[in-house]
Each structure stands twice: as C-alpha cells, then as structure tokens.
Amino acid sequence: MTTTTTSSAATARPLPSLPTVYRSRASVELKEFFRQRESVVFTLMLPVLLLVVFGAVLDYELADGVSFTQYFTAGIIAAGILGASLQNMAISIATERSDGTLKSLAGTPMPKSAYFVGKVVQVLAVTVAIIVVLLFIAVVFYGIELPSGADWLTFAWVAALGAAACTLLGIALSSLAKNGRSASATVTPFALLLQFISGVFFQFEQIPTWMQTVAAFFPLKWMAQGFRSVFLPDVMAAAEPADSWELGRTALVLGAWCIAGLLLCVATFRWQDRSAG
Amino acid sequence: MLPAQSGAPLDADAAISIRGLVKRYGDFVAVDGLDLDIRRGEIFALLGPNGAGKTTTVEICEGYRSRDAGEVRVLGEDPADGARSWKAQLGIVLQSGAGESQLTTREMLIAQASYYADPQDPDEVLELVGLTEKAGVRGKALSGGQRRRLDVALGIVGRPTLLFLDEPTTGFDPEARRQFWSLIRSLRELGTTMLLTTHYLDEAEALADRVGVITRGKLVEVAVPSLLGGRETAPAVVSWTEDGARRTEATATPTALLRELGTRFPGEIPDLAVARPTLEDVYLQMIGEAR
C-alpha cells in the first residue's frame, strides 16, 4: 500500500478517559434493564414468584429438620443468577446486534471495552438485586437461616464465579442467534431444561444418572450444589453424587467455563449482523 | 466531468479519496473499481438505484466493511485501521438507524456525547433537530420521522468533521424534509463535509455541491447537479397552444424559437412553457443506459 501523509487525529482535546466512558455505559445499561418491564418481570420477579409458590406448596422435610425450601432456596438463587447473566446477556446482546445498536456504537469513538464493562455492571446489579430479594423472602417467609461465617465466603465466590461464567457464556450464545426473539426462543427453553436437570426444582439425586451427567457439563448444577453447601447442614452432603459438596471441583468447573466462555466470546463476537462483510 | 482515473494518486488532503475500490459478496460484485474524491467542506450526494453499491461504498468509508481491492483514505487515514481518534472526527447516520432504547432522547444524546472529546451541548443539538419538546420522551415512543431526526442528532453531537448520511430522510413528510435540509445547510456553514446518499433527486439538487451517479458498482458520472449528464446543453422542450392544439418542440436553440413564436403571436404566446430536463430525467436516462 502506498502511504500518504496522514493529516490524522489532530483533535485539540484528548478523548474522554476510560473511567468516564465506563460510567456513562454503566448508567445506560442500568437504565436499559430496570426500565424495561418485561426484563424486570422475567428476570427478577419470576424467581421470586417461584420461590413464593414452591416454598408454600412443597412444604415437606427432606430429612430431620431439613425442609425442601432450604434445598429450593439454593437452587432458585442459582437459577436467578443464570437468568441475570446467561439469559439476560444472550437475549439483550442479540437484540442490540439485530436492531443496529451495536453497529451504531461501533461507529463512535467509544472504546469497545466500555460496552462490556456496562454489561458486567448490569449483570452485577441484577444479580445482587435477585440475591437480596430471594434471601429476604426465604428468611422472612420461610424461616431459612442466613449463611454464617465461612459460608458467606462460599456463597460469595460461587455467586461471583457462576455469574462470570454464565455472563461470558451468554455473550457467546448471543452470536448464534439471528435476533433477540430467536435468542429468547432458544435460550429460554435451554435454561429451563438445565434447571430441571440441575437440581433446582427437584432433588438432584432423584434425577436419572445420565441426566445428572449431562447437567454436570454445565455451570448451573455446580452453582446449585455450591449454594446447597451453604444452606443445608453438612449431613446432607451424603445425598450428593460424590457424597460430598465437591467445592473444589465446583470452582474448577466454573473456572473452566469462564475461560471457555471468554475464548468463545473473543472468537465469535460481532458488532454487526452476519450479513455484513 | 469524468471520474478520476485509477492511475491518479490518492488525494491525501481530500475528505475522502478512493481508488479502484472493489467489493464482492460471493460471486456478486457490489463495487467494481470505483474512484472518487470528496473535497473538504463539500456536500456530496451519491445517487443510484438499490443494489448499485452506494451503501457498500459508504460503509467501507465508515470502517464497517472490508474491501477486496483498492485504496481508501478517509480524513487521511485508511478506514480499515479505524483508530478511536479517527472515529472521533466522523459522524455516522446509518440507513438502518440505531436500535430501540429505554433511554429518553436527551439521555441518549448525553451518553453519545460522552464518547467524544469536544461534544456539542446535547440540549443545543436537540434544539437544532427540533426535538426539544421530545427531550424527555423515550426513544421507542418517537415517531419514524422523529426517530430519524434523533439519528441525525446522535450523528452530529460529536462535532464531526465528516458526516455520513445514508438515506437520512426516508419516511419524512415534505415539511420535515425541508426542515432537515435547513439543518444540513447550517452544518455546511460550520464547514462540515457531508457524504449523502439519497433516493430523492430534489434533495440531491437542493443540498449537494456535487452529485455522483453509481450503477452496478461503478461511478458513471460526477458533476454539479445543474450540469449532470450535459443537462445545461440538453435540448429544451418548448410547448405552447396554437390553433386550439398543444404544440411541443425540442430544440437546442430555444431563444431563437421563442423569437420566431413572438412574431407569430401579437401578444403573449398562449400557455408558453420552456423546460430543461430535470435532474430526475437525466438520472433515469443514465441508469437506464447503464443497464
């Protein structure tokens, strides 16, 4: 290529700093989520309603002094995080890609990282909101005991690592869909299916072994199991597939999904519809 | 005026300089050896039928699409490099517009302004595009025309040196279109270079310093609107009423014909009309020939 004199970029003022743009994008993403009634109802209220209904209906004991609601609280928190991260990202990014939002952003000097920072802030905010509301209901209505001591630490890392893995996976999945509606139509049943085989609605030990094996490939099973170690007494670990909570393996699987998800994102993320070349 | 030849070097001082641009989609050649120079400060309109390669050319200049061959410089840089500092000098109004949003018009402009070094005040921009009254309305509640004006507002809030407008007035009513034209003229006063694509020939004629006609991926002519296709020397059509019948005559010398008619009628020549081919006539003929 012949080089020509570049009369480039002689803008007098420097471009805005990264933190400035990050704040701006975070504010945009929070408004986009919390102002959209459908997303708030679907992502935030559905787990809450499920907890209320299941807690009231399936009011039986799994063992001496251990209620199914304790078990379900762990599972629904995991499912809530899945919705806030994987489902939310896959659907919202596919929508923004097909309606031209991403393309418009790519034409501005916005640093690309700012887009993802905004999304991460959104996931964090929604995840924290879900956890707080679910814990509140579990404690106030169903007498679930809050985690104590080291259990909080377990709770925090399982939530953070699970949300990270599912966020990355959701961003990667968004590239497979044609638009927001098709993303919703494929990701929602997928998430529901995962919930059924990952020990959210039923006890994991009652699920056929081959389904357990399938579930073990995905993050949700490990998140639910990690949260069970927090909300159930340690004697209940005997009901798990490995007769233990397997926290080490949980960290390993979720960490592996973070790495795989990140690689998939880098390989597949597009700022435009597939038609553009 | 003929398009620049591929042999000529890129014009580094031009706002946009293109030599031998080629873009293929599979077997389809969307842009086929296109040359173009757009001077700084001018409004250039790219005309052509659907599928002629207008949007592909524009989107290559904007950095959205890759090219298969040729050289492109936009504000002195290769769009394929697309640095932040380069994008900061562009304003882009896409054909498709931006997506739906839960943000208000004003919030969207504030967010957009936060990406630029020296943005214009969002409220001033709203005033400029006539959306002040809609400042607090969410993007999804705007009408089609309002939505398009918001797209333009988002495109200009960063004070671009070069503004791309891809079919900006599609779906506007005539009044909204006139308002838009005066907005474009006021941007011209500020020295903004504009590359406009449009289907409306009156729009090109009203706004553009030069127009380029593109068919089948090639630029067939570049000229000022009044000279396109030899319009100024094309035969004029003189028509009048004589002996109760409508008479029409195409002539290269309409003045002579009028003098002669003047001798035949003692007073006014009944129902006299002298017409030159409109830009639309010339344009339709050009794209017809290219087919």
TrEMBL record, chain A:
Topology class, membrane: Multi-pass membrane protein
Cellular location(s): Cell membrane; Membrane
Location of the ABC transmembrane type-2 domain: 38-272
Top-rank taxon, per record: Bacteria
InterPro entries recorded: ABC2_TM, ABC2_TM_bact-type, ABC_2_transport, Nod_factor_ABC_transporter
Keywords from the UniProt entry: Antibiotic resistance, Cell membrane, Membrane, Transmembrane, Transmembrane helix, Transport
The UniProt record lists the keyword Secreted: no
Main location group: membrane
Residues spanning the membrane: 40-58, 70-95, 116-142, 154-173, 185-204, 251-271
GO BP: any one term: response to antibiotic
One Gene Ontology MF term: ABC-type transporter activity
Listed GO CC annotations: ATP-binding cassette (ABC) transporter complex
Family to which this protein belongs: Belongs to the ABC-2 integral membrane protein family.
Name of the protein described by the UniProt record: Transport permease protein
Species annotation: Blastococcus tunisiensis
Automatic annotation (TrEMBL), chain B:
Top-level taxon of the source organism: Bacteria
Membrane protein topology class: Peripheral membrane protein
Localization (cell): Cell membrane
Keyword match Lipoprotein: no
GO cellular component: plasma membrane
GO BP field: response to antibiotic
Keyword list, A-Z: Antibiotic resistance, ATP-binding, Cell membrane, Membrane, Nucleotide-binding, Translocase, Transport
GO molecular function, one term: ATP hydrolysis activity
Segments forming domain ABC transporter: 16-241
Entries under SUPFAM superfamilies matching the protein: P-loop containing nucleoside triphosphate hydrolases
Pfam families, per the entry: ABC_tran (PF00005)
Name used for this protein in its record: ABC-2 type transport system ATP-binding protein
Source lineage: Bacteria, Bacillati, Actinomycetota, Actinomycetes, Geodermatophilales
